[in-house]
Amino acid sequence: MAALGWLTPRRRSATARSVLAGEASAEAARKSSKEDEQKNQKDSTDGAGAEPEFPVQGDDKAAAFFDLDNTVMQGAALFHFGRGLYKRKFFETRDLARFAWQQAYFRLAGHEDPEHMQDAQDSALSIVKGHRVAELRSIGEEIYDEYLADRIWPGTRALAQAHLDAGQKVWLVTAAPIEIARVIARRLGLTGALGTVAESVDGVYTGKLVGELLHGPAKAEAVRALAAAESLDLTRCAAYSDSHNDIPMLSLVGHPYAINPDAKLRKHARKLDWRLRDYRTGRKAARVGIPAAAGVGAVAGGTAAAIALSRRKR
Fold first, then answer.
1. Overall pTM surpassing 0.85 (yes/no)
2. Catalytic annotation, pick one of 36, 67, 262, 278
3. Can you list the pairs that 129-136 forms with residues at least 24 positions away whose Cβ atoms lie under 8 Å?
4. Which among 36, 69, 242, 262 is annotated as catalytic?
5. DSSP symbol at 288
6. 200: which of 15, 20, 154, 284 is 20 to 30 A away, CA to CA?
């Protein structure tokens, strides 16, 4: 894979695996965006307000990058994906108790735990090994309808729609598998998705990753690579996340937003005067540049999902 050039210098060091993961995700996202664009149907958003000053209408050098878990949707997409796989007999019940508390923890703590992420990654790879990519894509469509559609934060969706209405591209950036990330992006009418790329040969998963999980610095590398390929000006772009793990990504752009922030991100955002918005309780923070329609979207958290990924059924 040819290395892509950078528009801006790195503000934080990244490992070679992070760079590889980021570039692989950007390449996969660009290849799929044109195909997905033909399927997109923009859903209407709740509420209406005066046209905001930001995003800037018609600025084709700008784009928006949205984290997924706890930013666009309540909870973790990877765990709900596992719930759907369990329903389809991909693995057994003996380890469900071990993982049941992870999703509850995520919902209560509101941030990613590295050990949980690694555990989910290892389990997901063992589960999908030997399965066809097309099969997982098809299942992803079903899982979105079953578990994810009702967990989208309307407020964050309105923010994304504001960028689309301004003529800008909007990308999900998530550690979730790129196949499920693409489904979510297309269902929401977004441009595409950057996600973790699992290696496949002849359309069959090998059980390995290309690089590493798209998490932390790897997300920043993916955004950087995509921006270079799309000739974007990162100082005119926006990024949205709930987690301090995404500070490298948020720091790349000229318009960083903390959405439903964890404690560390909230502290960092306030220190740097970043814009904040919290849809978990309905309280509103700094509103500079936030479309009025986004304020309509605050919703209460639902019940915690009890099922996560486990070992593949033998």
1. no
2. 67
3. 129/205, 129/206, 129/207, 129/312, 130/204, 130/205, 130/207, 131/204, 131/205, 132/203, 132/204, 132/205, 133/179, 133/200, 133/203, 133/204, 133/205, 134/203, 136/177, 136/179, 136/180, 136/205
4. 69
5. T
6. 15
Our answer to whether residue 69 is catalytic in this structure is yes
Q: Which two tokens stand for residue 201?
A: 């040969």
Active site residue 262: no
CB 76 within 8 A of CB 103: yes
Q: What is the pLDDT along the chain (314 residues), one digit of tens a residue?
A: 333 333 344 544 567 777 676 666 777 776 666 555 544 443 333 333 443 468 989 999 999 999 999 999 998 888 888 888 888 887 766 555 555 555 555 555 555 566 666 665 666 677 788 889 999 889 999 999 999 999 999 999 999 999 999 999 999 999 888 999 999 999 999 999 999 998 999 999 998 888 888 989 999 999 999 999 999 999 999 999 999 999 999 999 999 999 999 999 999 999 999 999 999 864 443 333 333 333 322 222 222 222 222 333 33
Residue 59, sorted as left (phi over 0), alpha (psi -120 to 50) or beta, turns out to be beta
